[in-house]
Amino acid sequence: MDKIDYIEFPAASIGDLAKTTTFFAEAFGWEFQQWGDDYADTKSSGVGSGVNAESPSKAPLAVIHVADINAAYGKVRDAGGIITKEIFSFPGGKRFHFTEPAGNELGVWSE
């Protein structure tokens, strides 16, 4: 079953990424793994989450895990979703972004 298992918070700059991860660490005790200068993630937030300063979305981005990213890509398009970021690789898998009919942007990822 496909499910939301990750949320990504945007950061306008590398400095904002550092401020955001420090905030969550101090406020909630979350521990972050840094992936270069512009991305960090954590598994200690209850649901996987990250902070993106490389190509941040306009709002927090819910990310859905699927078994087959290519099949999900086709289903999203066929259902009326608009692809906003083509499939790309990252450490741990592949991902794409889309908007649904109300305009909300989401991501889809797979190993």
Sum this structure up briefly.
With 111 residues, the chain is α+β, with helices and mostly antiparallel strands.
Describe the structure.
The chain is 23% helix and 41% strand. The protein is an alpha+beta fold and 111 residues long. It has an eight-stranded mixed beta sheet with strand order 2-3-4-1-5-8-7-6. The longest helix is centred in the N-terminal third of the chain and has 15 residues, at 14-28. The model has no long low-confidence stretch (mean pLDDT 95).
Mean pLDDT: 95
Beta percentage is 35-45%
Structural class: alpha+beta
What is the count of DSSP helices, taking H or I runs of 4+ residues?
2
**Helical amount among residues, as a percent range?**
10-25%
Q: Stretches where pLDDT falls below 50 for ≥5 residues?
A: none
Name the shape in a single word.
globular
Order of helices and strands: EHEEEEHEEE
Strand order of the largest sheet: 2-3-4-1-5-8-7-6
- Ends distance: 15 Å
Number of DSSP strands?
Answer: 8
Topology summary:
Elements: E1 3-10, H1 14-28, E2 33-34, E3 39-42, E4 48-52, E5 61-65, H2 69-78, E6 82-90, E7 93-99, E8 105-110
Parallel strand pairs: 1-4, 5-8
Antiparallel strand pairs: 1-5, 2-3, 3-4, 6-7, 7-8
Features:
111 residues; alpha+beta; 2 helices; 8 strands
